[in-house]
Amino acid sequence: MMNLTRPSLSIILFLFFILPINSTSALTKYNVLNFGAKPNGKTDTTKAFLMAWKAACASADSTIIYVPKGRYLLGSMAFQGGCKSPQIIFRIDGTLVAPQDYRVLGKSTDWLSFEGVNGVSILGGALDAKGPSLWACKASHSNCPSGATTLSFTNSKNIRIRSLLSLNSQMFHVVINGCENVDVQGVRIIAAGNSPNTDGIHVQLSKNVNIIKCSIKTGDDCISIGPGTKNLWIEQVTCGPGHGISIGSLAKDLKEEGVQNVTVRNTIFLGTQNGLRIKSWARPSTGFVQGVRFTDSLMRNVQNPIVIDQNYCPHNLNCPNQVSGIKIKDIIYEGIRGTSSTQVAIKFDCSPKNPCTGIKLQNVNLSYLNKPAQSFCSNVRGKALNFVRP
Q1: Can you give the pLDDT at residue 90?
Q2: 130, 175, 222, 306: which could join 346 in a potential S-S bond, CB 3.0 to 4.6 Å?
């Protein structure tokens, strides 16, 4: 049975009472300008930001690192945990800017990374990663670096991200990896529709994560959900351009952690490649996807509004001739409506060895060019209730 509920009371109390947005006056304040940061967008202020973090981290008080208006040139930075401070708030009124030469960041895994932290909040501000020059390099098939994720949290707890703008990331915009109790609200993500591997928000190996009231325009998945994700709540998200909201790709490893208890509700997809997608490679795996509820989604000119693909193989390259071991069960689609830009609006292409089970469609209405759309079902078991078209 699914246990799809909102986060626990303890998480809500943490997010809205212990860390209220407007109660920063009682916190010990560290202004990055006092550590030598220059808001001119030209002077490297990496050292100043790291010094401000070191001071806040060493404080026994709750702290705020304040970034006034202006543009701050920053290289790759890792903010390490083990802090004495019970909470550290980054209050950003300015814009953090990556170096103009994409190779400076491109060799790094992350631009701004938080590792092993507890009680960190990022409030406001903009992150401009200057990604287009690297995308152009990749488009020309030159010898290009992979690129850096703009903002990552790894092995961290009690994280809050509010009203942040992530612009033109080289690779993923936001990564939540191995974290617990994460609340993301009011985040805007912007990158070109043809920008490669610029997933908006990626979640993996994490539990109790909320993503609410976000707008994501990018060149890959708006939200990608990886192995080991548990208790994920996505609500009021607008996606497009992009590749939709995707669980997977899974079955990258034989012994892969499963995905469970995911709710995606009240979402809008505008001209995206996919809407609601579950995807896995056709190879052995002990992984699974279960307890997923997709409700109240509006599709506008979406290529694949509803899709489960257990034969995922982009560009038909390096794909083993095997069957997916991922077990997919208890997936609900309810209140999904709008238009498909292709004739097949619902596609369930499941594994012959591990058929999809417990798939439920209820009140689904998808059309193609003002005509009835089609569905494709292979190795899937479930039921349709009330009005379902196709």
Answers
A1: 98
A2: 306
Amino acid, single-letter form, for residue 353 = K
Query: What is the pTM (predicted TM-score) of this model?
Result: 0.94
Q: Which residues contact 167 (CB under 8 A, 6 or more apart)?
A: 126, 127, 128, 129, 190, 191
Is 159 a member of any domain? yes
pLDDT at 19 over 70: no
Predicted pLDDT at 351:
93
pLDDT bucket at 6, cuts 50 / 70 / 90: low
Pairing type for strands 356-368 and 371-372 reads: antiparallel
d(Cα 309, Cα 373) in Å, to the nearest integer?
A: 19
Question: Is 220 considered catalytic here?
Answer: yes
- Residue of 110, 220, 221, 330 with catalytic role: 220
Q: Are 227 and 141 members of one domain?
A: no
Q: Residue 190: name the closest of 128, 123, 138, 134 by CA.
A: 128
Record the tokens describing residue 33, joined without a space: 């300008």
Q: How far is it, in rounded angstroms, from Cα 279 to Cα 305? A: 13
CATH number, residue 244:
2.160.20.10
Is there a domain that residue 215 lies in?
no
Of the candidates 183, 243, 330, 349, the residue annotated as catalytic is: 243
Give the tokens for residue 89.
């708030």
d(CA 378, CA 276): 18
Digit-coded pLDDT (tens) for 135-157: 999 999 889 999 999 999 999 99
Q: In the annotation, is 173 catalytic?
A: no
